[in-house]
Design brief:
The complex is a heterodimer of chains A (589) and B (370). Chain A has 3 domains: 38 residues; 141 residues, Penicillin-binding protein 2a (Domain 2) (Alpha-Beta Complex); 320 residues, 3-Layer(aba) Sandwich (Beta-lactamase). Chain A is 39% helix and 22% strand. By secondary structure, chain B is an all-alpha fold. Chain B has a two-stranded antiparallel sheet with strand order 1-2. Classes of the chains: A alpha+beta (589), B mainly alpha (370). Chains A and B meet through α1 and α2 of A and α7, α11, α12, α13 and α14 of B.
């Protein structure tokens, strides 16, 4: 060995130490290389991958919503979104400050979003969507200073018909930070907040995909590493007929209230108008706080779907229920009559008026329904008792949700003497029964319940669950029974005759039509002002295929104001049917 | 007489020549790979071409120095020593305002780092000093003189502040004195004292230096800040695995996650792109160079050349260890280039110069023994 050349023993030792010094240091390097490159290879490999790989979520476009004839009611359009990748935010304070200014957001809002996703620093977090070209160009111009900020396009919900059928469709919104913590959603996801959008959110939302991009150390995109395509949400076909909906909205003008047109045979809703309405498009993009609170606090309650969430006294349209009770319980027959002199005296101190102050004279049940005589029904009510009315009211569907596939439905109230005692501690008075028999007093219902109760008469004792979705993707929805109970043929015949007469020579004469409409009007006492006007009807009388309910808040007389609208809706239905039939014949050879 | 005789070229140490040749080629390849994706790519900034020029120039220097009797340099060393001190002083007093830096002199496109120069000069100067003071160096007076000799440039560099280069002086001086035969008790006494006062450095250290030490101790505390370089370099090397990702394919290097990846962190690029096998080949080449250097020191014809060779070897040992150790995360980040490998002219020229002296010492043994 070389060292043998050194004669001096001490010098030999010293050279040895130098060799050992060099060898130990190099061996340390070797061991360290071995540890890092071979032993910890997988760890560092994935770290290196994460380092340069960024994930930009590709949010699934929501399913398209069609009307029953394939017209688009809700689709998606591309829009610009700004996201942030936390790992690339080298100077986060500066960037967030700048971004907040450009996007007109609060700095804390942005920070909160980033903080919320701090364990996924390589994934893009949506900060704001639906941005205009102007904002995007400002961001583009400042791109070098905004390291970690990315611009991408996303599908944005779009409702081409604006306010039309808004209460059926509902609206969407960006998921709140609270919902994110359960892991189902990520920041920036859109969820249904009302209507079909909410009820069918699971179906409509689809599955998000993602784009993987390779970035350099400054967060600049170098190339795409491929993408995991999103699964588009499932399309929905509604039972709504957009053309009929449009006509109904037009004829309703700017009244407040409801029109529901449906098929009594299977529960499909052709048209559901609830006014006043709103444009669901405003929720698809960015909504500023002021505008939102203005709408929420609007005394007209524009977001309330009055067809299911509005509770009213049903008024005279309710009269068919006590009438059925009287006949079925054999309290009265078709031939039994009561006399109406305009005022009904109960005991010495109480008197109740008929809507017709001069009185109807002697009336059978058929005429009482046709003329909507209150005094006949006061006496009928006292004859059958409140408990029996309540029992049948429930059979007709009052007091229970119809179970329509929309949100916000309220069950209303079917009162009983026991309920009153529990609630107010006082007995049920005969006066309560008198009011109950004409659909006033404690009873409340939503308009759809009223329409369902008429469907029971139409279907001889059965109603079907009202629904607005006809098919989810390719899967057709089956009709479902809602209520069903036995009513004798004689009873049904009498009630139907009364309803026919009401439209053809009674209070509903303004709904008289060549399409042979039958129905019932109501002028509902409104403690807050002008009476509510209502009309429940169906056609054709012999073989009904459409039933309609009109309810106008503070609309005045049911016969004068609601019946013509009911008629117009039914006639529109038949006209459209005829047009489509004719169009089909033309196209077929 | 031609400047370089054919005969004397033949007698050059083959191992050192081959190792330096290989390191230079690998260096050029790695710099080409490391800077190929750089935003600055373009003829004007072509690192590869620039380095190719430096390699050519410095190989010429290597051959030239190998033909010049090393004693010439030792003779020059006091002059060079004072010039170095002067340059360091100029940098300290006017560096930032005139040259835009406290470490570099900028002359047009060229930059020159006096602290690199200082290392070389110190080794020469110390050799001269030890040789001339044979027998006296053990005395307290000799020790004090040595301390002043070494201490002045060290001080001027540490206040730049360039702690890395300063610390490299310590093992160099130690081994030169050690091999020169200095008594153990003096060595232990002096360096023990140095170790004892080392914590005082903390007081004069700048914030960024303290930060580097902290981030070395716990790089994950601030992964995007001061710990960034350490973490990224480790990730680069670790993800290289056994065979590496291949030239131009290192994501860490090519996407600029490793800072200074063509200069101080060139070894990270090697680790990532050439893998464990490539990295140990490099380490082995350095080891070969150093062992050959130690051999020359042992065989050297006189005490002077032994001490000089030792100083040169320890420069190489410490530079390699500090630089590679830094990229592997076992040492804090200090601005020390990897000899023959990092991009940059002055580092390369001085490494070649030192290697040239080694070659000359080797040649003098042959002449002496023949």
């Amino acid at each position: 060995m070389v060292l043998e050349r050194v004669q001096n023993k001490e010098q030999k030792k010293r050279f040895k130490l130098l060799i050992v010094f060099a060898s130990v240091l190099f061996f340390v390097l070797f061991l360290r290389l071995f540890y890092i490159q071979l032993f910890s290879y997988w760890k560092y490999k994935s770290l290196a991958q994460n380092n340069s790989t960024r994930v930009v979520p590709k949010r699934a476009a929501r399913g398209i919503i069609f009307d029953r004839f394939g017209e688009k009611i809700a689709d998606s359009v591309p829009s610009y979104t700004i996201s942030v990748i936390p790992a690339d935010l080298k100077d986060s304070d500066k960037v967030i400050k700048m971004l907040a200014k450009i996007l007109e957001l609060n700095e804390n809002e942005i920070k909160e979003k980033i903080e919320n996703q701090k364990y996924k620093v390589f994934e893009a977090i949506k900060i704001k969507g639906d941005l205009g070209a102007q904002v995007i160009s400002i961001i583009e111009e400042n791109k070098t200073e905004l390291a970690g900020v990315i611009i991408h396009t996303e599908a944005k919900r779009n409702y081409p018909n604006k306010t039309m059928a808004a209460h059926v469709l509902g609206y969407v919104g960006e998921v709140g930070l609270k919902d994110i913590n359960n892991g189902k959603y990520v920041i920036g996801d859109t969820i249904g907040r009302a209507g079909v959008e909410r009820k069918y959110d699971e179906v409509l939302r689809g599955v998000n995909g993602s784009t993987k991009i390779r970035v350099n150390a400054s967060g600049k995109e170098i190339k795409s590493l491929g993408e995991e395509a999103y699964v588009k949400g499932t399309n929905l076909v509604l039972t709504i007929d957009l053309k009929l909906q449009k006509i109904c909205e037009e004829i309703f003008k700017d009244r407040r209230g409801v029109i529901v047109v449906m098929n009594p045979r299977d529960g499909e809703i052709y048209s559901l108008v609830s006014k006043p309405s709103f444009d669901p498009n405003i929720f698809c993009g960015q909504l500023d706080g002021k505008e939102w609170s203005r709408m929420v606090n609007d005394p007209n309650r524009i977001f309330l779907n009055r067809a299911v969430g509005g509770l009213y006294s049903p008024g005279s349209v309710f009269k068919i229920v006590p009438a059925v009770v009287a006949l079925e319980k054999n309290k009265l027959t078709a031939k039994d009559v009561f006399v109406c002199r305009g005022t009904y005296h109960y005991g010495k101190d109480w008197s109740y008026d008929c809507w017709k102050s001069e009185g109807h004279g002697v009336l059978s049940m058929e005429d009482a329904i046709a003329q909507s005589c209150d005094i006949y029904f006061y006496q009928l009510g006292l004859t059958v008792t409140a408990d029996k009315i309540s029992e049948y009211a429930r059979l007709f569907g009052y007091g229970d949700l119809t179970g329509i596939d929309l949100d916000g439905e309220k069950p209303g109230l079917v009162p009983t003497p026991v309920w009153k005692k529990d609630k107010y501690g006082i007995h049920w008075f005969p006066g309560n029964t008198i009011q109950y028999a004409i659909g006033q007093g404690y009873i409340t219902s939503n308009p759809l319940q009223i329409l369902s109760s008429y469907n029971i008469i139409i279907n001889n004792g059965t109603s079907y669950k009202p629904h607005v979705v006809k098919a989810i993707g390719d899967k057709q929805m089956e009709k479902q029974m809602l209520k069903s109970f036995a009513i004798s043929g004689k009873t049904l015949e009498l009630i139907k005759k009364g309803l026919w007469k009401a439209v053809n020579s009674g209070t509903g004469a303004m709904a008289k039509s060549n399409y042979s409409i039958a129905g019932k009007t109501a002028t509902v006492e409104n403690p807050h002002g002008l009476s509510h006007a209502a009309f429940a009807g169906y056609a054709p009388f012999a073989n009904p295929e459409v039933s309609v309910l009109v309810f106008i808040e503070a609309g005045g007389s049911g016969g004068v104001n609601a019946a013509p609208i009911g008629k117009a809706a039914i006639e529109a239905y038949f006209k459209l049917k005829k047009e489509r039939y004719a169009a089909n014949r033309k196209t077929e050879p | 007489m031609p400047l370089i005789e054919k005969q004397s070229l033949k007698s050059l140490n083959k191992i050192i020549l081959v190792v330096i040749g290989l390191l230079s080629i690998i260096s050029l390849v790695m710099i080409y790979s490391a800077t190929s994706s750089s935003d600055l790519t373009g003829l004007r900034y072509n690192f590869f071409l620039k380095q190719l020029m430096w390699v050519s120039v410095s190989i010429f220097i290597l051959l030239f120095v190998s033909q010049v009797n090393y004693e010439v340099w030792i003779g020059f060393s006091p002059w060079m020593y004072y010039i170095t001190i002067g340059m360091l002083l100029v940098l300290l007093l006017a560096g930032k305002s005139v040259f835009g830096s406290v470490r570099w002199f900028h002359f047009g496109p060229f930059a020159f780092q006096p602290s690199e120069f200082a290392k070389v000069v110190l080794v020469l100067m110390l050799t001269k000093f030890i040789t001339e003071n044979k027998g006296k160096i053990d005395l307290t007076e000799g020790m004090l003189k040595t301390s002043v000799l070494v201490g002045v440039p060290m001080f001027l560099i540490v206040v730049q502040p360039d702690l890395g280069t300063t610390l490299i002086f310590v093992p160099i001086v130690f081994f030169m004195l050690f091999i020169s035969g200095m008594k153990k008790r003096y060595l232990i006494g002096t360096f023990g004292l140095l170790a004892a006062v080392a914590p005082l450095f903390w007081l004069v250290m700048r914030d960024y230096q303290k930060k580097r030490v902290f981030s070395f101790l716990n790089p994950e505390a601030d992964p995007l800040g001061s710990g960034y370089s350490l973490i990224q370099s480790k990730i680069a090397i670790g993800s290289g695995g056994l065979f590496g990702k291949g030239l131009f394919n290192g994501t860490q290097s090519q996407l600029n996650f490793i800072p200074e990846h063509h200069t101080d962190f060139i070894f990270s690029v090697i680790g990532e792109e050439l893998g464990f096998l490539g990295a140990i080949v490099i380490i082995f080449l350095y080891y070969l160079l150093i062992m050959e250097g130690i051999k020359i020191a042992i065989y050297a014809k006189d005490r002077t050349s032994t001490i000089l060779a030792t100083g040169i070897i320890v420069i190489f040992i410490t530079q390699v260890f500090v630089n590679v150790g830094m990229t592997l995360g076992i040492l804090p980040i200090v601005g020390v280039p990897l000899p023959f490998m990092s991009y940059g002219g002055s580092s390369l020229i001085f490494s070649m110069f030192l290697a040239g002296i080694l070659l000359n010492i080797h040649m003098s043994i042959k002449k002496f023994s023949s």
